[in-house]
Amino acid sequence: MPDGALEHLKREGRIVVVGASLAGLRAAETLRDKGFAGSLTMIGDEPYEPYDRPPLSKQVLLGRAGAERTALPRRREIDAVWRLGVPAAGLDMAARRVKLADGDEVPYDRLLIATGVRARPWPNEAEAELEGVFVLRTRDDGAALARRLDAGPRRVLVVGAGFTGSEIASACRERGLEVTVAERGDAPLVGALGGVVGAVAAELQRENGVDLRTGIMVTALEGDATGESAPRTSPTAPPWSATSSSSRSAPSATPSGCPDPGSAPVRAASPATRAAGPSTSAASSPTTSSSRATSRAPRTRCSGTSSCPWSTGATPSPRRRPRPTTCSARAPTGAPTSGCRRSGPPSSG
To answer: What is the DSSP letter of 59?
Structure first.
């Protein structure tokens, strides 16, 4: 770019950042640091300005901080126009316009797509509606799951023992809640940190009272009218009242403000059903009411080298690198699990 055109862009150009999370915020701050004085627009699909995601599976679940107190610190003012709560749905490169889901369009001279990843949903939409199934990725997810844990579910099942799933399990144990973790790998964190560290993590979890089941694939969540559930392969297993599902996350395929890593969707149960309950991550817990409450609570079917008599239910959050999986039709959309196989391309965000 000729020096004159670059100077004009810095003075009067229009830069649009799609993705109002950590990467988008830091990019906007850097643009201002480097002397960009033109128009800056931040687009995000959540209604909140950039916030920190790691506390959602730590301090927020432990009740030490509210989800609303996770805003990211600002290095400087960025003087931006914020378009929040409406995802970017398309891109007209010829006209240089970002199309929003509400029909509006935002013109740009330069565009930065910083959408990151999103929680990969459970493939069966009906099962995603079950009581007590949660995914943990967003601020709202963290707040909903924390409320469920406050209600004191008798058991929590976490599907997936990655970083987020392990942190959910740790928070449950610190709260005095019984928790089972179902992991299809040989040990927690194997994919990210290897077998040696995974073996140490497994020992630590078990020493701290986590019922860790490895070599397990969760193939379905099923509900009944009682609001309690048990693994289908283990009719004698005690029911669990909370479920948190954690399957890997998928890259966003369209310009929409997507959450940072370490979360999954969450579904809550009503007091009547006592079904409580997500990287892609999901977490669920029972005993509190939900606008999406139904008469059924989740039950898990699983297969693998371990038996499935879990005494709790919860699934963790999505991971950054998606891997192809094939899920039975019984696995819920919106409650990904690392104990689930899914087929087809990664979800778009």
So the answer is: H
Mean pLDDT (10-residue bins), the chain, 349 residues = 85 96 96 96 96 94 93 95 96 96 97 87 75 88 94 90 94 96 94 94 96 90 61 43 56 40 31 30 31 40 42 38 34 37 36
DSSP 67: G
Closest listed residue to residue 263, CA positions, set 200, 349, 326: 349
As a whole number of angstroms, the distance between CA 70 and CA 79 comes to: 21
Distance CA 311, CA 291 (A): 26
Distance between CA atoms of residues 210 and 213, nearest Å: 9
Neighbours of 222 (CB within 10 A): 18
Beta strands in the chain (DSSP E): 14-18, 39-44, 81-84, 88-92, 97-100, 105-107, 110-113, 117-119, 133-134, 155-159, 178-183, 211-214, 216-221, 242-247, 249-251, 280-281, 300-304
